[in-house]
Design a protein that fits this description.
The structure is a homodimer. By secondary structure, chain A is an alpha/beta fold. Helix content of chain A is about 40%, strand content about 15%. Chain A is built from 13 helices and 12 strands. Chain A has helices at about 5-15, 15-25, 30-45, 50-60, 75-90, 105-110, 130-135, 145-150, 165-175, 195-210, 230-240, 255-265, 300-310, and strands spanning about 65-70, 95-100, 120-125, 140-145, 160, 185-190, 220, 245-250, 275-280, 295, 320-325, 330. In chain A, the strands form 3 sheets. In chain A, strands 7-6-8-9-10-12 form a 6-stranded mixed beta sheet, sandwiched between helices. Chain A has a 4-stranded parallel beta sheet with strand order 2-1-3-4, sandwiched between helices. In chain A, strand 8 (about 245-250), helix 12 and strand 9 form a beta-alpha-beta unit. Chain A is elongated and about 85 Å long. Strand 2 of chain A pairs antiparallel with strand 2 of chain B. Chain A binds a DNA duplex (30 and 30 nucleotides) through helix 2 and helix 4.
DNA sequence: CCTTTCTGATTCAACGTTGAATAGATCGGG
DNA sequence: CCCGATCTATTCAACGTTGAATCAGAAAGG
């Protein structure tokens, strides 16, 4: 019942351990005859390499840590899923850590505390300061994601993601291009970790400005958190105040779902009377019964780039500290109006 | 820039490596004076133990693998989150693998292929057969979860979870106890991996039988998958057929959200005209604008029990192969925030 | 036929840690 | 004052693997 080792296979096959190692790793030169024999013995004994020993010897673990506030948040689940997919394709294993936006947990994670040997750390911080990054002791490659992480990036510890301001501008522009003139937002925030809200609000304002439209404060829906109930409540308030809007930009899809629900209850047709755009393009939107568009933060491409950065041999600093990737816009509105 | 090792700390502090090891691990007997000195040096040099070396020596990695079909599915995200929480509290690290319900991927995961050294494997299978479990070569502790996994369990590779049939019975009973007599279901399935649907349907039938109510086929909502759109469509069909129901049991919360949306659009008051019960008690339900109850599959307790089984020194087989935990029912029927 | 080159295989040491065995110092009791 | 017990610290080997160095034998070249 004891673990089968390289040497056990070697003895059984009548060769040296190193030769078996060569077969397992495809290294060195091994005659076809021996190779086949050894493979047979490996299968017979059910040999499986001990990754700890291998890692101790070679120094690479094939492990990457992913730290996120809370996997229950659909966007984080979505990103994590995309990241797993990229990693699995490369034979990289991902260990996950939830920080719940706790500063001490975030700091410990930054150092890889309590973790197995890693190739790199990917994290979506909520509380860290630039100072925490600067004081970091661990030399492990670190990649930041998310809007809060955006502000902490350095060339050595870069941020990867789409341009949030530009994406929000494009989302708003999409509504304008469909002829909507009075566009409301849901997702304005005060206090707390508001990097996301600030950037998306900025993009929204830019789009209006570019179109020569003055922002109307009565069309701004404030929220405390980005969840369904708040999206619903904010929409409720807009309707109650008799705000006159034909377009609605929600700062994430969860808010959008809440708003769509409220609009449906009040008999406001979507996209007939109000066209809606969300942000994150979460899978659930594909099954939404209401028709709306959403900004696709390109999690698949972001994941790939992160792994390129971490596993890349060069480990070159990223100029400016920001690797900006193109976002997309998915339109769940089936019949597209060609322009 | 080279990694700081035990021996580096030892030299600096003028002691042996083993003494430093003792300080780090709290083993052996070390004088308070030396202990303090060594801790200072550890901090000064930023020493961090090499987990691979430690694991190679001790044989335990503190790593558990969690395999799930797709983290984007809210229930899986929810469970994973609970599992991370339990694991982190115990200093256990979790590596995640997505199987997408692919048989080959599930089989490979079962063997721990491509994984670092693990303490155990937790998996929610969709395609595995009992045969795959029986033919397994890896001796790693394996715990199964989910309804499909339920059917594969053995005393050595147990299943952990709540009693699905009983939980579905209780959910239905809750509606009956509120005076509802005509109770519809959404979530009946044909073909595919239907373990979940079958068990919940059985519980539903039992509750009706116990109450002396004959099941009415016209109150059964069939679906292909458990998602929002299907829940909505099924509710739509029930309404279109003028099905007369005052209670609705949805086989999961995602179906319930879709149904609630449709009921809202059609002006059917919830829980006034129709009381709704879901299954999974996902976080999102707490933010739902509609009032409904849901079966809580007790993911926190399930996670704890799984880790007990895997990390427990005894590794005793579970009689019958099933560790059944009590479920809960959360009632989101709260006083709504007045507007 | 002898030297050189090439190929396939082996030997050896080391990765960083910790369990087991051991050594030295201190202490208490007879 | 000596002996055993107690406490602190050390030495040594081993966990399973693979890079580097090496070697034996065959093939190639002069």
């Amino acid at each position: 019942m004891a673990r089968v080792r390289l040497i056990d296979v070697a003895r059984r096959a009548g060769v040296s351990a190193k030769t078996v190692s060569n077969v397992v790793n495809g290294t060195g030169a091994v005659s076809e005859k021996k190779r086949v024999e050894i493979l047979a013995v490996i299968d017979e004994l059910g040999y499986r390499p001990n990754r700890s020993a291998r890692q101790l010897r070679t120094g690479s673990s094939g492990l990457v840590a992913l730290g996120m506030p809370d996997l229950r948040e659909p966007y984080f689940a979505e990103f994590a899923s995309a990241f797993f997919t990229s990693a699995q394709r490369r034979g990289v294993t991902v260990v996950v850590w939830q920080t719940h936006g706790d500063l001490e947990t975030e700091r410990a994670f930054l150092e890889g505390e309590g973790m197995p040997e890693l190739e790199g750390i990917v994290m979506s911080p909520l509380r860290l300061s630039s100072d925490d990054i600067a004081k970091r002791r661990s030399a492990l490659p670190l990649v930041l994601i998310g809007e809060h992480g955006h502000g902490l990036a350095t060339p050595e510890n870069p941020h990867v993601g789409v341009d949030n301001i530009e994406a929000a501008r494009a989302a708003t522009h999409l509504l304008l291009s469909k002829g909507r003139q009075r566009i409301a937002v849901i997702g304005a925030q005060e206090g707390g970790s508001t990097a996301t809200s600030k950037m998306r609000m900025e993009g929204y304002r830019r789009a209006l400005r570019d179109a020569g439209i003055a922002p109307d404060p009565s069309l701004t829906g404030w929220v405390i958190e980005f969840n369904r109930a708040e999206g619903s409540a904010a929409a409720e308030r807009l309707l109650a105040a008799r705000a006159d809007f034909d377009g609605l930009f929600c700062f994430n899809d969860t808010l959008a779902f809440g708003a769509l629900y409220t609009l449906a209850i009040h008999g406001v047709s979507v996209p007939g009377r109000v066209a809606v755009v969300g942000f994150d393009a979460i899978e659930e939107g594909r099954f939404s019964t209401a028709q709306f568009a959403s900004v696709d933060p390109n999690s698949a491409k972001v994941s790939e780039s992160i792994l390129d950065l971490i596993l890349g041999a060069e480990r070159a600093p990223v100029p400016g500290g920001h690797l900006v990737l193109p976002f997309g816009i998915v339109d769940h509105e089936l019949p597209r109006i060609p322009d």
